[in-house]
Write a structure and sequence with these properties.
Number of domains: 2
Strand content: 15-25%
Low-confidence stretches: none
Structural class: alpha+beta
Strand order of the largest sheet: 5-4-6-3-7
Order of helices and strands: HEHEEHEHEHEHEEHHEH
CATH class of the largest domain: Alpha Beta
Number of helices: 9
Distance between the termini: 14 Å
Largest sheet: 5 strands, mixed
CATH architecture of the largest domain: 3-Layer(aba) Sandwich
Helix content: 40-55%
Length: 249
């Protein structure tokens, strides 16, 4: 938030830029604060999350159907990496949609959530491939589904929620991109946008993002601004419907 506020107030000379994610609007919406007014320059790509289960769930449960069969009628807990965040919202929507008796357990970030999932302190939750990937590869955790429109190249055997007929009304794709102060003239913006486009489309970066479980996909300023506005409106509706508002501190 501090960084975004600084960029929003900076001179439009192209010297102050910010590479960030959809947390740019998620956090202020949840805290009932104004979203910083910054100018989208280009989208780097998308990121998504996996639904992951840990050792609290019996080893014979290897898919989403098996998990839902095991969990129905059984009180259990779902973890998330922070109150009012996307993982919290997705866990609530899954529990409500499947009528699960689930308690939400919040953590201060994914590493703490990962530690407790490995220790079997809750059944499962939504997490990113970057944080949970090593434990998944080691067989300590199991990925049952991925949010988003497509499977991940790094985990091709894991189906999407849509393929499984679950959470059909829920679309989640986080994004990362470059922003600058509002009011940058074309003479300043154009070379920055061109350089960022070249970097975002570099095959080495695209391949690295795929290995991390992200999806490269550049969009120009206009396309990125339209997506930003759409995702912000969707997030406001989700936060209001689920009453995810949080107090600061």
């Amino acid at each position: 938030m501090l960084g975004a506020d600084h960029v929003a107030r900076a001179a439009p000379d192209g010297l102050t830029l910010m590479l960030t994610t959809d947390a740019l609007f998620q956090v202020p919406v949840v805290l009932r604060r104004p979203v910083p007014v910054v100018a989208p320059i280009g989208r780097l790509g998308h990121a998504t999350v996996l639904f992951i289960i840990g050792p609290e769930v019996p080893a014979q449960v290897t898919d989403m159907a098996g998990f839902l069969t095991w969990v129905r009628g059984r009180p259990m807990a779902l973890g998330h990496w922070g109150g009012g965040g996307s993982a919290h919202a997705l866990a609530l929507m899954l529990a409500q949609g499947e009528r699960l008796d689930a308690t939400m357990v919040g953590y201060r970030g994914e590493p703490a959530m990962l530690t407790d999932m490995l220790a079997g302190r809750f059944a499962g939750g939504f997490g990113t491939p970057v944080t949970f990937g090593e434990a998944l590869q080691a067989g300590q955790l199991r990925a049952l589904a991925v949010m988003g429109a497509e499977r991940l190249a790094v985990l091709p055997a894991v189906p999407t929620m849509a393929e499984l007929g679950l959470m059909r009304d829920t679309e989640y794709r986080g994004f990362g991109g470059l922003f600058g102060p509002p009011g940058m003239p074309d003479a300043v913006l154009a070379p920055i946008a061109a350089a960022f486009r070249a970097a975002a489309q570099d095959p080495v970066l695209v391949a690295r993002m795929a290995r991390m479980g992200s999806i490269a996909g550049h969009a120009d300023a206009a396309g990125f601004a339209a997506e930003f506005a759409l995702r912000e409106a969707q997030w406001r509706a989700i936060v209001t419907r689920l009453d995810l508002f949080q107090s600061e501190g």
